[in-house]
Amino acid sequence: MTVLSITDLNVFFSTEGGDLHALRDVSFDVPERRIVGIVGESGCGKSTLINAILGLLADNGRVGGGGIHFEGHDLTRLGPKEMQALRGPRIATVFQDPMGALNPVVSVGAQMRNIQYRSGLSRSEKDAKSVAILQKVRIPDAGAALARYPHEFSGGMKQRIAIAMALLMEPALLIADEPTTALDATLEVATIELLKELQQDIGCSVLFISHHLGVIAELCDDVVVMYAGEVVERGTTRQVFNNPGHPYAARLLECDPARQSERVRLLPTIPGEIPDLRHRPEGCIFAPRCDRRAPACEARQSELPLQTGHMARCALAEARS
C-alpha cells in the first residue's frame, strides 16, 4: 500500500527574471511502513518538495501541474483549512533546528497539550499521553519535563522532544527535514536509532530529507536522488548505493568524505554549478557537468528501468539482471 504518491509534480516561483521552474516532473511513492530518503546537494529542491507537500509554498510559489496524493486526497487541490486539518494528525514534520520548532516562552507540557486540541481528551489524559511519548524518546523524568521550558534542555533532548511532538498524534506520514544536522556525531547515531524504533512502533511511513549519505544509508529503505529539481534516480537504498545508474548519483557517492580511504589535501567535488532554473536546458539537466556526456543527452530524458524498482533518468543507463 502507498501512503504518499507524487506524480509529475511541477512547482514554479515567480521572480523578476521570469518563472523559476523549481521542480520538474517529480514522481515517486512512499510505501506504507517504509522510510524513503531524499538526497541531493543544496539547491536540488528538497525543501521546495516538502513545502509543496505541506501546502506551505511561499506566496510567489505555485504548483503548475501534477499531483500529490495522500489518503485519497490530492493535496494540490485542498484549501488552507483542509490542509490544516491534515497537518499534525495525519502528516507531521520534524525540522532541522529544534529551537526554531519549539516555542521558547511556552512550557513543553503546554505545547504538547496544544497539539492534542482535536483529540477530545481531558487535560490529565493529554498530559499522560505526553509523558508516555516523552518516555519513548528517552527524556529523563518525563513527568517533570512537562513543566520545563525548551531552554532547559540540551540540543539533543530538544530534538527528541520535537520528534515526540511530531509523533504524538500517530500520523500516517512523518516528514523529517534534516533532523540530525544540528547534532554531533554521537547524538546523530542515537537519533537515527530512535527514529527507526519509533517508526516501527507507530507504524508510520517516513520521508527523510538529508544531504548526509551515511545517515540515508543507515536509516532508509528506499532512496530518491534529486538534482536541480528533478528525480534523476530512485530505488532501494542497497540498489542505489551499491550500483548507481545515473552519473550524478555516482559522483555524489564518490564525493562522500566517509568513502575516502586515504588522507587527501582536497576532497573530491563535482565540477560546475547547478543551472539557472529560469532557463532549463532542453536535454538532460546534468549534462553540462557530466563527464559521460553523449549526443543522446541533448534530448529530454525519460526514466529507464535498471532493475525491479530501480530507475534512472539517463540515456546511458543500462538494464541489469
Summarize the structure.
The chain is α/β, with parallel strands linked by helices. It has 2 domains: 230 residues, Rossmann fold; 70 residues, no CATH class. The chain is built from 11 helices and 12 strands.
Shape estimate: globular
Count of helical stretches: 11
Distance between the termini: 26 Å
Major pleated sheet: 8 strands, mixed
For the record, the count of structural domains works out to 2
Give, in order, the helices and strands: EEEHEEHEHHHHHEHEHEEHHEE
The level of helicity is 25-40%
Task: Report the β-strand fraction as a percent range.
Answer: 15-25%
Mean pLDDT: 91
Report on the structure:
With 321 residues, this protein is α/β, with parallel strands linked by helices. It folds into two domains: 2-90 and 172-312, Rossmann fold (3-Layer(aba) Sandwich); 101-170, no CATH class. The protein has eleven helices and twelve strands. The strands form two sheets. Strands 6-7-8-3-9-10-12-11 form an eight-stranded mixed β-sheet, with helices on both faces. The protein has a four-stranded antiparallel β-sheet with strand order 2-1-4-5, covered by helices on one side. Strand 11 and strand 12 form a beta hairpin. It is globular. The protein starts with a strand and ends in a 9-residue tail after the last strand. The mean pLDDT is 91.
Structure keywords:
321 residues; alpha/beta; Rossmann fold; eight-stranded mixed β-sheet; four-stranded antiparallel β-sheet; 11 helices; 12 strands
Lay out the secondary structure.
Blueprint lengths: L1 E14 L2 E14 L3 E5 L6 H9 L6 E10 L2 E2 L5 H7 L4 E4 L3 H4 L6 H8 L7 H14 L5 H4 L9 H13 L5 E5 L7 H18 L2 E6 L2 H7 L2 E6 L2 E7 H6 L4 H8 L49 E4 L2 E3 L9
Parallel strand pairs: 3-8, 3-9, 6-7, 7-8
Antiparallel strand pairs: 1-2, 1-4, 4-5, 9-10, 10-12, 11-12
